[in-house]
Amino acid sequence: MPKLSERGFKFIIFIDDLSFEADDSSYKYLKSVLEGSAEAKPSNVIFYVTSNRRHIIAEKWEDRGDMSQRGEIHTMDQLNEKVSLSDRFGLKLTFLRPSPKEYIEIVKGIAAEKGIEADDRLIMAANAYELSAGGRSGRTAKHFMDSWLCGGEAK
Question: Measuring CA to CA, how many Å separate 16 from each of 19, 21, 64, 91?
Fold first, then answer.
């Protein structure tokens, strides 16, 4: 990162969908970079990271198991170390499953953006699509509208 600090610009380092497996310890190097313990992070650099995991590092049930079986005396230290990477990022956004009404509002919003009237037929199809897609989400609403626009089975 020293080369970035010399540039006279501001930089966003964007890492999309970051996650680590439970037995992957390379996350420790990223923690060092973020904290500046390896070297000071330049003031013109910021990290933006997305992840589909709340804690970024996979946890297994045996991580919380009986200490005598695992051999780890300080089990909570190990768990806290894994969670500490996600704590390095100041803002956390959680997208909860929308209610049925919220899901339809999302569908209506996408339809309006596409210049489509959200009539009863579209709403009924959106509800049927949600059932077959395995749940309500903004992504499900988008996929429904993509299918609807392409004349797919959602119609």
Answer: 9, 16, 28, 15
* Regions of the chain with pLDDT less than 70: 1-2, 22, 34-38, 52-93, 152-155
Letter for the amino acid at 100? P
Q: Which residue has the tokens 């904290």?
A: 35
User: CA 107: distance to chain centroid?
Assistant: 21
CA distances from 17 to 55, 60, 72, 92 (A): 12, 20, 30, 14
Q: Which two tokens stand for residue 101?
A: 């009404």
Report the chain's terminal Cα–Cα distance, integer Å.
52
Residue 40: per-residue pLDDT: 73
Instruction: Quote the pLDDT of residue 99.
Output: 95
Distances (CA, A) of 5 to 50, 62, 107, 150: 24, 43, 45, 48
